[in-house]
């Protein structure tokens, strides 16, 4: 019989604890061995280099001499360790692992001023995190607009040893999509922060795996424009990566969008696609002719190579949601043994009209979670409404959420909240909603718009609803698409609607099989309803994934259970007020 | 009678000490009041902004919305406090106070990776230092090539209240000279660090107080080139600042060169100049028609307005030492009340031929200290010879000193030496000289060239001789000018000579009245002999002041008496291994 008196338990339980620990470690090793989970080490150096992503030479931010950066490939349950050294002469750097929830490792989320101090020039930071779930992810810079400078790459997680995906395929391709400007990111940043405001304009090129063609077209012979036919040998940095397939097979295309601005549509001539995964979550499979993909999203689609095998077919990406001023990005689906240099007999698929929002909405509304996926809690503990407006603040053009434009503080929140540094950021919680009578159809009136650094604090494990509310921008009759991305969690996308969200919209929400995502779009003048459980102690960015929009303040900061966060590595804290705090007892 | 037994002295001396301290403080206040010494506070924000230094719009690094940065004006003995906030979105920043010796404040020298950690984006650093001596100085960025990006301004120190300069003048003008590129500094840096190497080329424009004209000439009507006449209203950012003078007066022109590359020559039509100050040290006055000035140098010259007062006169700067591909920088000396818009009757003074090194050497050799100036010690404790070569290291083009190309470590030396962090940099002292049989007339053979971060450590208060030895660069028959700048000290320039320095040159050295400087040039294939006293505890850069040359490793690091350095402010240490050291006792 065990003693029930606490004071007597101690010595015994100490003995028990030690034995239990030993057994636990043995078990852990056993589990690790049996599951095949590995620690995968990467040693990366970030540096600027000359590169020709779209056949025009430019300075890009590369990793280990590569652009895009090296692909990380791991299995669910693996631990990824990236030893990242900053070889930029004057800039800091961080890398965000987009879609990885960083359960228990909030300091590895790679968001400058939020989860960590930027890595100083010449220094090394150790990202160590578990990739707990199979899926198609990517990584990218998260300081200033360094993602736009080319700091991104793919992160692909396979199912754990012995596990199976809920769909079959014979082979796979990875397509990391991005957009590219010829104006340097530094100059883009200055323009956005200037008064008068200078917009970055539309991208010069769309890139597939970092490859596009600016001064020529792969498909010039089909077009009636005056673009010239590309003359590429195939070994150029801008030459397209051909997708070599065999007939009558099923291929998985992993597609992720790291664009700075462009919303994209992807289509393959003559081939339908079955959408099976989004942001690392399985979907109820559905068939489409073309795929809308917004910045921050990822999908897996299956294609069956059931077309005439003596031909090749275009894969094309084009711009949605903004009057396109950028030619499509192209590559070729090559049915082997047909020569890859044989041109498709038809022109590339035509992207739906940029402003055919009905098409986009139909696509978004076709996405449901695979049966058996986790369902959302049936009720929420707290609901916040986030009004997205464009505002003038002291003459500068900004994006604001409930009239507050996010200005990140020099001290990262994770450390400042954990250590109670009240001077580190605005202590007043930002507004939870906006005036009932706000007219989302008209340009905002700006008197109370401010910049701020306040945080939405959530009780740990509470269920939070977020109603993202779109509105009119500064110009009349303009409302833009914004893909909102949440760090540290997935959310259920409960629904999309038109105009201002109201009580009557409640019943339209889908609680049965809403998809889990980390990124969801708001359509012009519309709303999007999200639900998530604040179950991951840490501080998490939630923001428009359009790089210049975030630079202009279009984001908020969420925090939950920060006192439960374990010891933050020193290397994440050596800046701002956390540095001062840790130094304060220092003698001479 | 005072007790002589130490143990008995203590209680009494404590009493004495307190009283002495009080008296001392009262005295100090009195001295301060009587001398009028002040603490001058500045609050600066560094940020990128659009500017048109040469009538072409570009991104420049400005301070408080100004380019060049605000002029600091103080009196000898004053304390300058600059609260510097970094408003750059991704870059660190520091500012070096060029010519200020930082006696007792080595952490305020503003050299990234040497005296301090770069100031992180969003953070503030407090520069606090005494300007102990009157003179013409300037300040500039000292991280990466941020000086080239426009981060510079003037620092002018007048004699203390009640003191007099050893020359008379009725008015003064300040001329901060620089050169300007249209290619961004970020791209320049990448090119220099690339393999194949890409040189930055010659500057597009020369600037006087940040103003030049790229697409036109102020003096087009005098030239037979096809440059068009500038059409400026006068309020443009690129419009020249006119020097308004009255007849029959004496004016002091303070001239400092912050060029990234260009060696300059300054001349004023019809006016001779009397050189009276160099780098904050008074000179034996001497008269010249034109003034050679290298990057990192400053001069004061006196002009007498004794010419036809109904006319105006050109002030012109042109490139020396490199085949010029840059038009001269121009402004006008306007005799009031003559209209400033009246063109001079003669063309601008012609810069001596770029390769007329005889002219340059004659100028340099005319510079002597004003009688009564401090004389060098008659002997040295240690002499090091520094061979300047261009080398290939792993395929990269570098500059090396005694075969070592400087690669700054992530942890600033000042902290790492003071705290004995032996892993912070190469512990082996770099070579003190080079092989006797080295042929300075031929391109270097590269087998042993390396990059390194070693330090020359000097005994405190020892006298050090440095023989700077020029040599052939990588190409045949090329040897360039290098202006070497020493931080934390002035040195006596003992002499210049041709070819390789040898014992027979010893007797040519000037120990009688050598000028004190902080910058001295080595001429092609020549040597320059310097002497200084290592009397300033700290770690000090000594380097070629040509920005791309330093970026390519053309510098060394000196240190002396670092254990005498008082408490380094925390804000200078929050990076690299010093950050780790200070954090090491941190709990959870």
TrEMBL record, chains A, B:
Q: Name one GO molecular function term.
A: copper ion binding
What does the UniProt keyword field contain? Copper, Disulfide bond, Glycoprotein, Metal-binding, Oxidoreductase, Repeat, Secreted
Q: Name one GO biological process term.
A: negative regulation of defense response to virus
Name the source's superkingdom.
Answer: Eukaryota
Q: Which compartments does it reside in? A: Secreted
* Main location per the UniProt record: secreted
What Pfam families would the database entry show? Cu-oxidase, Cu-oxidase_2, Cu-oxidase_3
Q: Say what the protein does.
A: May be involved in a redox system involving ascorbic acid.
Q: What is this protein called?
A: L-ascorbate oxidase
Q: Which organism is it from?
A: Carya illinoinensis (Pecan)
């Amino acid at each position: 019989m065990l003693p029930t008196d606490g004071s007597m338990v101690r010595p015994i339980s100490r003995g028990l604890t030690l034995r239990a620990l030993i057994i636990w470690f043995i078990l852990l090793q056993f589990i690790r061995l049996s599951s095949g989970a590995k620690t995968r080490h990467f040693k990366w150096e970030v540096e600027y280099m000359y590169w020709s992503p779209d056949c025009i030479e430019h300075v890009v931010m590369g990793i280990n001499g590569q652009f895009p950066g090296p692909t990380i490939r791991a299995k669910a349950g693996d631990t990824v360790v990236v030893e990242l050294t900053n070889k930029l002469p004057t800039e800091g750097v961080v890398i965000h692992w987009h879609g990885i929830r960083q359960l228990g490792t909030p300091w590895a989320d790679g968001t400058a001023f939020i989860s960590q101090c930027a890595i100083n020039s010449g220094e090394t930071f150790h990202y160590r995190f578990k990739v707990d779930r199979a899926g198609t992810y990517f990584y990218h810079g998260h300081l200033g607009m360094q993602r736009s400078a080319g700091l991104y790459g793919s992160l692909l997680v396979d199912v754990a040893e012995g596990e199976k995906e809920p769909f079959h395929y014979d082979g796979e391709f990875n397509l990391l999509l991005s957009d590219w400007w010829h104006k340097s990111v530094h100059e883009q940043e200055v323009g956005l922060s200037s008064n008068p405001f200078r917009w970055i304009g539309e991208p010069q090129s769309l890139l597939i795996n970092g490859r596009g063609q600016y001064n020529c077209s792969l498909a010039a012979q089909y077009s009636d424009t005056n673009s010239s036919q590309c003359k590429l040998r195939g070994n150029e940095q801008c030459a397209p990566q051909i997708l070599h397939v065999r007939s009558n097979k099923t291929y998985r295309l992993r597609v992720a969008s790291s664009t700075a601005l462009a919303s994209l549509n992807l289509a393959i001539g003559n081939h339908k696609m079955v959408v099976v995964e989004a942001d690392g979550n399985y979907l109820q499979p559905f068939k489409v002719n073309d795929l809308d993909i917004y910045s921050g999203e990822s999908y897996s689609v299956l294609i069956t190579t059931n077309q005439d095998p003596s031909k090749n077919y275009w894969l094309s990406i084009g711009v949605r949601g903004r009057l396109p001023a950028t030619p499509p990005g192209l590559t070729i689906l090559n049915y082997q043994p047909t020569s890859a240099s044989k041109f498709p007999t038809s022109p590339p698929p035509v992207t739906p009209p940029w402003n055919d929002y009905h098409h986009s909405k139909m696509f978004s509304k076709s996405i449901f979670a695979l049966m058996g996926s986790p369902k959302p809690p049936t009720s929420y503990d707290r609901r916040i409404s986030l009004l997205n407006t464009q505002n003038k603040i002291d003459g500068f053009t900004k994006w604001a959420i409930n009239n507050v434009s996010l200005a990140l503080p020099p001290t990262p929140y994770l450390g400042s909240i954990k250590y109670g540094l009240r001077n580190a950021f605005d202590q007043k919680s930002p507004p939870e909603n906006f005036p009932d009578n706000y007219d989302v159809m008209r340009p905002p009136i700006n008197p109370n718009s401010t910049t701020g650094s306040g945080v939405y604090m959530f009780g740990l494990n509470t269920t939070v609803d977020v109603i993202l509310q779109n509105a009119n921008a500064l110009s009349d009759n303009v409302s833009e698409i914004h893909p909102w991305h949440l760090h540290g969690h997935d959310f259920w996308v409960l629904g999309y609607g038109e105009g201002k969200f109201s009580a009557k919209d409640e019943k339209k929400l889908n609680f049965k099989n809403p998809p889990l995502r980390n990124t969801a779009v708001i359509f012009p003048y519309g709303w999007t309803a999200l639900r998530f459980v604040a179950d991951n102690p840490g501080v998490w960015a939630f923001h428009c994934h359009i790089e210049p929009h975030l630079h202009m303040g279009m984001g908020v900061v969420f925090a939950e259970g920060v006192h439960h966060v374990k010891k933050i590595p020193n290397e994440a804290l050596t800046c701002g007020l956390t540095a001062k705090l840790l130094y304060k007892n220092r003698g001479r």
